[in-house]
Every structure is written in C-alpha cells, then in structure tokens.
Amino acid sequence: MSSPPDPQPAAKRSRRFWLTVGEVVGVLAVLIAGLNYWDSHREHAQAAKQADAEAKAQAALVITGQADAGGRRIVLRALKSDQAIQSQRYIFPAKVLDHAMEVSAAAPQIDAGWIAAGLARALDDADAKGDGEAQLPVGILTTYVEDGETRTDRSLYKVGYAWRSRFLLGRQITLQGISLSQRGVGGDLQALVNQRWASRPHTAPGDE
After folding, report:
1. What pLDDT is attached to residue 125?
2. Could you give the maximum distance between any two Cα atoms of the chain, in Å?
3. What is the β-pairing status of strands 101-104 and 109-111?
4. Rounded Cα gap, residues 191 and 197, in angstroms
5. Is the pTM for the entire model greater than 0.85?
6. Distances from the Cα of 18 to the Cαs of 13, 22, 25, in angstroms?
7. CB neighbours of 186 closer than 8 A, spacing ≥ 6?
8. How far is it, in rounded angstroms, from Cα 76 to Cα 59?
9. pLDDT tens column, 127-145
10. Distance CA 122, CA 173 (A)
11. Are 71 and 175 in contact (CB under 8 A)?
C-alpha cells in the first residue's frame, strides 16, 4: 500500500517561487528608482545648462549700427549700455578690401569709403545691372570693458549696402545697416569671411 505524497516538497517549491518573485520585484524597484534618479539628474543638468547659456547670452556683446551721413558710414555701438567699446578691427572679404581696418573707441564705425571701390569691382565682375541691394559679411573683433573687466569678442556680422548706377560716373555705394550673423567665432575669421562672401551672390539680398 503506497503512502500519501509528502506535502513538504511542494511547500518548499512554493517558498522558493515566492522568494524568486520577491527578488525580481526588488530588482525592478531598484531599477525604477535608478531610472527616476537619472531622469531627475538629467533634467537638472539640462536646466543648469540652459540657465548658463542664457546667462552667457545676456552678457555677450552685440553691436548695433545705424546708417549716417546719407549712407556714407554706419555708426556702431554696443547694445548694452554698460559695455564700453575700446577698439574694433573690421575684416572684410579679401576681394573687397585686402587689409583690416581698425578704429578706436572714439569712433566705432564702418566707412563706405573703405569698401566702395572693392564692391564696385565685385559688381562689375558679376555684371550687375541697374540699381540694387545686397549684404556683405564682415568679421568684427572688439575689445570692450564690462563690469570693470576688459573683454574681447569675435563675431560675424552682415552689412547691408545698396548701389545706384550713375551714367558716366560709375556706381554709388551707400551703407544701410548691420546685423549679427554669428557670435563667438573661433578659428581664422578672415577665412570665414572669405567663405561667406564666395558662397553667396553679391548682387541680390540674402541671408548668410
């Protein structure tokens, strides 16, 4: 006569099963907690990075300019009143002007006389007809003072200009204004200006 089955093995298997489920649940809880921590850390890092970028943007130098004297020059100034320009160097496309121009804090400006002849040659080479408008890339290296500290800025701007054809008198070049194209430029600024000039048509408006 056979004896009844021993219930102990089944109970042991059940305990082992529940122990295994408990371990899995524990591991999942640890993983979920780790993922929550990682998400929180990543969001905090992104928020800190954005706040740092905004702080740098607010502290950065931005130049504004207004055409003066019938377009014969653009008078420049810092957008923020607490930034005092000490000196500036202007780098134009080499085919327009083959050397940089420098001015002191007394007269930060871009003069049409510097670039009129070079722009006229470029327009002749492009066989530009009649009157028109276009943009000229210019690299600007600025030394300025802010919060008692002397700082430097290397940025790329666009100068708006216009030309008017005059019978027997050639083209009259006038300057219209200036706008920021790229801030905090590294490397060879002259090469970048030349590249921007070569990659865009000079006889029609367009973004650089």
Report:
1. 86
2. 130
3. unpaired
4. 10
5. no
6. 9, 6, 10
7. 154
8. 18
9. 887 889 999 999 999 999 9
10. 12
11. yes
